[in-house]
Design goal:
Blueprint: H1 2-32, E1 47-53, H2 60-67, E2 75-81, H3 91-98, E3 103-107, H4 117-127, E4 135-139, H5 149-154, E5 162-171, H6 178-196, E6 204-208, H7 209-214, H8 217-221, H9 231-237, E7 241-252, H10 258-275, H11 279-305, H12 309-343, H13 353-378, E8 382-385, E9 388-394, E10 397-402
Parallel strand pairs: 1-2, 1-4, 2-3, 5-7
Antiparallel strand pairs: 4-6, 5-6, 8-9, 9-10
Helix pairs in contact: 1-11, 1-12, 2-3, 6-10, 6-13, 10-13, 11-12, 11-13, 12-13
């Protein structure tokens, strides 16, 4: 057992060093990236902002209000709502209060059974655009954008090799549920990974309409479970790239209970397995981040039972160093991202000692939750999202098993919990 103990402790410390280096690369990019070169009004293309809705997300009204107050010369907000009975129609109140005239709300008219409902909505919205629209921007209902969001998102598309632009989301660690904290810890790693692999996020994403059609992306949407992860490889095949815009890291203040988060995490990992451009790298990261710490804990217990105090002390010390190291990485990235969020004019998270203590305790919990979710996702063949079940044979063979409108009774009792 001594040889295995030495291997695990060395592996833990080595993986911690790698994670620190990757986090520093991301942080350096955040700090060194200047504000994007924003195009003048006359250079910005007419853009359609597409918002697809099923259910009333906690901050939906705030999302729509922010989208209607963009520093952008010519854009229209296209809202596709899942059904006439959907509670998301409350957006009408926000639109009337804003006196907006650049909004079009439509119900989803054609429910495709060979792709997700969101892809169905996107295809409907794009099919109704005329040739005057030169770009589209996708946004999720849990994204509250800042006034320069659309200008910063679309401006980099002027570069001929940039096919799409994207941001990412950042959660707050101050929620009252452990699920919110676990989601925050896990997302810290996810944001770094998505930057390194140039994986776009559909909650803040723009693409030129001619690229959308020339690359055949619309056809892919018509048979896929999601719209964003696949874009990296498709654009790469056409000599184009996805550009991450640091100023478009969006703060998400929604809550999440632990059981609800596990279900959403299983869905996300399954989605990654289908479309992530570097799925094997995700597996490697999971093995290093989950398996090694768990094996270290098991060996620690066995060492205690076998009264091998020297091995037990080595394992405990290494595991504590590893956990403290992850906590430091998280805190450093939190400080770096908070500067970006503060530039948006949004309040940043105040980290008290109590929150830091909970973050420390949440790190082992996150490893356990992610490990269980990863194993469960490997055997998945069906996906449930907001009451709808899909059967998935392969990435391009999706079947919607049964459709029903989203009901108000399906909304969580706590109005701050993510749907």
């Amino acid at each position: 057992m001594k040889e295995l103990t030495i291997f695990i402790t060395q592996s833990l410390l080595g993986w911690l060093a790698i994670q620190m280096c990757l986090a520093m690369v991301f942080l350096f990019y955040l700090r060194s990236s200047k504000s994007p070169n924003l195009s003048a009004d006359e250079q910005l293309p007419k853009t359609a902002v597409i918002l697809c809705l099923r259910g009333a997300d906690p901050y939906l009204s705030n999302c729509v209000e922010a989208l209607l107050n963009q520093d952008y010369p010519e854009y229209d907000l296209k809202v596709i709502i899942d059904s006439q009975e959907d509670p998301a129609w409350l957006v009408n109140e926000t639109i009337k209060a804003q006196g907006a005239t650049n909004v079009e709300i439509s119900p989803l008219r054609v429910i495709r059974h060979n792709c997700s409902l969101k892809c169905s909505s996107l295809l409907q919205a794009v099919s109704e655009l005329d040739d005057s629209y030169k770009a589209i921007a996708l946004v999720d209902a849990d994204t509250i954008v800042h006034p320069h969001w659309l200008r910063q998102l679309v401006s980099p598309l002027a570069h001929p090799q940039v096919g799409a632009t994207t941001g990412n989301r950042w959660f707050v660690p101050t929620g009252k549920y452990w699920g919110s904290l676990v989601r925050y810890i896990g997302n810290v790693s996810t944001v770094v990974q998505m930057y390194l692999f140039r994986v776009p996020w559909g909650g803040t994403l723009a693409i030129k309409t001619d690229v959308l059609r020339q690359t055949g992306l619309l056809d892919k949407w018509g048979e896929a479970l999601g719209e964003d992860f696949m874009m990296h490889n498709i654009l790469k095949e056409h000599g184009l790239r996805v550009q991450f815009v640091p100023s478009l890291i969006m703060l998400n203040r929604e809550e999440c209970d632990l059981l609800g988060f596990i279900e959403s995490l299983k869905r996300l990992l399954f989605y990654c397995r289908l479309y992530h451009p570097s799925w094997l790298a995700i597996i490697g990261d999971a093995v290093s981040s989950i398996l090694f710490p768990c094996v270290a804990i098991v060996l620690f217990v066995l060492s205690l039972l076998d009264t091998q105090w020297d091995l037990a002390f080595l394992l405990l010390t290494t595991y504590c160093i590893y956990t403290v190291g992850l906590l430091l990485i998280t805190l450093i990235l939190e400080l770096g991202v908070s500067q970006v969020i503060r530039a948006h004019g949004q309040p940043t998270t105040k980290l008290s000692m109590d929150i830091v203590r909970k973050m420390f305790l949440a790190i082992p919990l996150t490893q356990l939750v992610y490990g269980l979710a990863l194993v469960a996702s490997l055997g998945m063949s069906t996906v449930k999202w907001r009451g709808i079940i899909y059967r998935v044979e392969n990435p391009w063979n999706i079947r919607l098993l049964e459709y029903h409108p989203y009901d108000t009774l399906d909304q969580p009792i706590d109005g701050q919990i993510s749907l």
